[in-house]
Amino acid sequence: MNRDIILSVSGLKKYFPVRRGLILQKTVGQVKAVDDVSFQVYRGETLGIIGESGCGKTTLARMIMGLEKQTEGEITFLGKKIDTEMPADLRKKIQMVFQDPYSSLDPRMNIRRIIEEPLRVHTKLSANEKRQILLPLLKNVGIDENALQKYPHEFSGGQRQRIGIARALILQPELLLCDEPVSALDVSIQAQILNLFKDLEETYHLTMIFVSHDMSVIRHISDRIIVMYLGQIMEIAPKKELFDHTLHPYSQALMSAIPVADPERQRARIPLKGEIPSPLNAPPGCPFSGRCAKAKEICHCQKPGLRHTSAQHYVACHLFAEGCEETL
Ligand code: SF4
Q: How many whole angstroms separate alpha carbon 316 and alpha carbon 206?
């Protein structure tokens, strides 16, 4: 794998203030949606981010896109620091595929206008030049050229997501951020769209961040995986390493929930007790301590740092802290 770093995220935090009172609007707490997250994205890889709803993965994606300003920390893209004030020449190099293909397309525009819109905003290409970019792209995402005059409501969910993907790719971005792009689709269509992403990854040499709550989806698409819980990273590893040597108890529970097609090889499911706690009242120690079957005293008072365990494998758990195994 090429180790050229495209995106670097360092100590990133996003806290939303909670205000009370009709007039004074006093701040009474903070929702820690993303809490001290650091990682890198290498050119040509697909980095999967997995976690339950509310774990902060979408807020993280929105900060990288410059749609949400961070409370603290840095995002560096192609060697330049970025935030909501991102210059246009950098902004066009990160594109996003959204979760809901129904609401992400303007119903008043036909498909040609929707897909060409980024070219109109960021370039001065002639109609003919735009057409020369558009036609091969349409073919690659599986949209019929004759459908260009149609409107979004005339397409199925899967076709609309293909349109969203074409719009995101038309500027040939350096980084494609996909936020739950298949979760609103039927299972059979999900498989088609995931295979399309795989084909496009090869055709366009894409670098992708792929956010999902579904471990089967993340396993299919990713080269490396980040497991998030309550706004923090629990584990990072290359896909094979994560599946062969799952370390964090939360990752183990997520893995155990992946359906197995073979009835003779049923996996023992690790039940997750209770609900994900509110990010307004996160536990003081390990964020997973309230639901972890292996939690000990230290877990409830001391937050575990992200530690390196083997090549490219990092885990935030006291079970893997130096010298802690005996004390646990
Ligand atoms: Fe469980 Fe403790 Fe590890 Fe957290 S630090 S995952 S509570 S064992």
A: 29
328: pLDDT strictly greater than 50: no
Residue-range definition of the domain harbouring residue 123? 103-172
Our answer on whether the CB atom of 289 is closer than 6 Å to any ligand 1 atom is yes
Integer Cα distance of 2 and 111 in angstroms: 36
Residues 141, 199: one domain?
Answer: no
**For residue range 114-157, what is the model confidence (pLDDT) as tens digits?**
999 999 999 999 999 999 999 999 999 999 999 999 999 999 99
Q: Cα of 313 to ligand 1 centre, how many Å?
A: 17
Examine the domain organization and report whether 80 and 41 are in the same domain. yes
Taking the mean position of all CA atoms in its chain, how far away is CA 95? 13
Residues 86 and 145 both lie in one domain: no
Q: Which residues pair with 308 in a beta bridge?
A: 314
| pLDDT in the model for residue 326 | 36
Residues 147 and 233 in one domain: no
Ligand 1 contacts CB of residue 288 (under 6 A): yes
Atom of ligand 1 nearest to the CA of 328: 8
Specify the pTM.
0.91
Per-residue pLDDT reduced to its tens digit, 91-120 = 999 999 998 877 888 999 999 999 999 999
Structural domain contains residue 241 = yes
